[in-house]
# Entry
Amino acid sequence: MYRGSGIRRDQVTTDGIPCVRYGEIYTTYNISFNECVSHTQESFVPNPKYFEHGDLLFAITGESVEDIGKTIAYMGKEKCMLGGDIICMKHNENPKYLSYALSTPDAIRQKGLGKTKLKVVHTNAPSLQSIKIPLPSPAEQERIVERLDAAFAQIDELKSNAEKQLAEARALFQSALTQAMQPKPGWQEKKLSDICDVINGLWKGKKPPYIKVGVIRNANFTKSFTLRYDNIEYLDVEVRQYEKRKLQKGDLIVEKSGGSEKQPVGRAVLFEREDGEFSFSNFTSILRIKDKNTFLSKFLYYFLLFIYKRGDTFGMQRATTGIHNIEFEKYLSIGVPVLSLSEQQCVVDYLDALSKIVCDLEEISRKTAAECDAMKQALLRQIFE
# Structure
């Protein structure tokens, strides 16, 4: 066993020598792989380490005890470079058999022994060397690999079909959203600032009287453009400030800062709670958009979703802290199409129907993925235990 050498993200190139970085073991590969998704230049790494056909790779840094030491077998023919926080193991057994055996519930339990979650979880060669697995004859190893390959392929096909249906539904929704919101001949526009009250966030109060309210923050935004309510922090804030910035059902909240180049800020979500007292964090994080009764909140939500998915950055600037911020004046100057309330409602009803299909398929895909993973673990347990 030996460790690889660090390959930074900015050292990944479109050509050069194939390489594996430790994060890719978690996100890209499973059991075995034939080709690397990344490449680098050998000159970038002062002390390069390599792996070859049949070698096993272990990720020795991770985010959870359950995932630490994830194992994959390299079945390709090219010589590849080994990234940092990866251990390569040379051996004389069937590579895929070892990878399957080291992915069983019992092997995962052994990998996590004595590990605790701080910010990250680490393991090392001595810990990996202490793992015990059943080791039958080479012929039996081959028979087990053939059986598992066939079964895993069927399970992966089930998962892939669910993902394909979801991808098609998302593409249909995006197409419908674009078609509904694209400017059309005769359409007029109004600035966002002309049709909405845009209010900055709430500072923690300093003068009594106080009221305890749930404060919406960036962490409450989800990737599916909704809000999480299970992780809301409740704070004592000035009643005077809260009355100006209280959230009501139908209000739109926009993420003003945070994000990155790959995940820019500007996500808009609808606040849909009718119970409780809620506000939103200070002006460096979130804005509130409150309609002036000329637009449906759901129509504005879909329009801002369209703008976001189109890739508008609203003059996004990167601060020295690494945080990205919307340029406020540019955001307020967004042109919103002026439709009658009945026309807006037709658009909302159509997009709502498609959105529900996407949401239903997301749930089906999530359940299918969980069931497929459970089937794989049950099969591994049946064979190896």
In short: The first helix runs from residue 22 to 27. The CA atoms of residues 64 and 308 lie 32 Å apart. The two ends are 26 Å apart (CA to CA). The mean pLDDT is 89.
